[in-house]
Amino acid sequence: MCQHQPPCPPADAPNREAARLVAYHPEQGWGLLCNGVVCFDDAGELLPDGRSIPACTCPSGHAA
After folding, report:
1. DSSP secondary structure, 26-59, as one string
2. Domain count of the fold of the chain
3. First CA to last CA across the chain, in angstroms?
């Protein structure tokens, strides 16, 4: 999917959120990254293969 040089991290990489934003819909609370990941404003994610990553619930806001 990503055609940037250097390429953005793939959807299965730990740093997948570093991919470039290609579409953003703030009124709906989500954005699409160039690697196919849908990121939600609550920090949850939907991967291209249909798996969901829940929003982080730790106090620091970062995954443990």
Report:
1. TTTTEEEETTS-EEETTS-EE-TTS-EEPPP-ST
2. 1
3. 29
Residues spanned by the domain of 16:
1-64
Q: Which residues contact 64 (CB under 8 A, 6 or more apart)?
A: 58
Whole-prediction pTM value?
Answer: 0.77
C-alpha to C-alpha distances, 30 to 19, 34, 57, 61, 62, nearest whole angstrom: 15, 13, 18, 18, 19
pLDDT at residue 17 greater than cutoff 70: yes
Q: Using an 8 Å Cβ cutoff, are 34 and 47 in contact?
A: no
Distance CA 4, CA 34 (A): 9
